[in-house]
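User: Thanks for the earlier help. One more: Citrate synthase. Can you show the sequence and predicted structure together?

Assistant: Of course, both are below.
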Amino acid sequence: MASDTAPKVNGANGVGAVKKPEGDVLHIIDSRTRQHYTVDVHHNSINATDLKAIKAPKDEEHPEYQNEQGLRVFDPGYSNTLVSESKITYIDGLEGTIQYRGYSIHDIIGKKKFADLSYLLIWGSWPSAEEAQKYQQRLNDVPVISENVLNVIRSFPKNGSIIGMMIAGLSALQSDDMDAIPAHAAKNLYLGQPKNVDEQVIRVLSSLSMITAAAYCHASGKTFTPPRKDFSYVQNFMLMTGLVDESTGEPNPRYVDVIERLWTTVADHEMTC
């Protein structure tokens, strides 16, 4: 941001020259000081920290205003504040639009499996047939969660929070492999080592499904069933939670398709929703 009256503004490296506006800008005139400022507009938003350059003399009657520290943004409940920028997902609830990596959800639901979508979200492209098969196999090769993890989950009251059970289960999972924790191993394990990162992503993705299923079984009084090597991600989740047909002992394909579609809809449902 630049001020027409001030010769310099504070930059990232201290005091730097006033920058000229580039692209879209918001013009601001501070009635307290009569100074004019320009703020860069990027993707229909401004950087709130740019407003810190808009300063006024200290208000002796109201020092808590901290005028001299720069203008602040008051937004209770973050009703009009962007806190992150996603290169993965675009969601517009008012228009009913969801895009993953630029692909419309209408071109995904019923056509792609959830495991394939997770590959897209994590690695940025759809897997080939060979990559999809290898990816599913790697997910299925993750060891079943240990008794230590199961015991932590089962230590909760059956009517306790399933989310709490999942969080505790993940903590127990971490403790099962302390050598995978950089602070414990006292060395860099993941920075600049994508192979190690990918291994842990797959481990956690598969283990989280087991932990969630185990928590559900504990809360509902069902028996946790270990996953099968020949099942898909969703099929195994339903198997582990006991959601199977009595006649076959396997998940009903119709219900598998419903879960595939549901999980696709909410696959990235945090900051972007």
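User: Great, one quick takeaway?

Assistant: Residues 5-18 have pLDDT under 50 and may be disordered.
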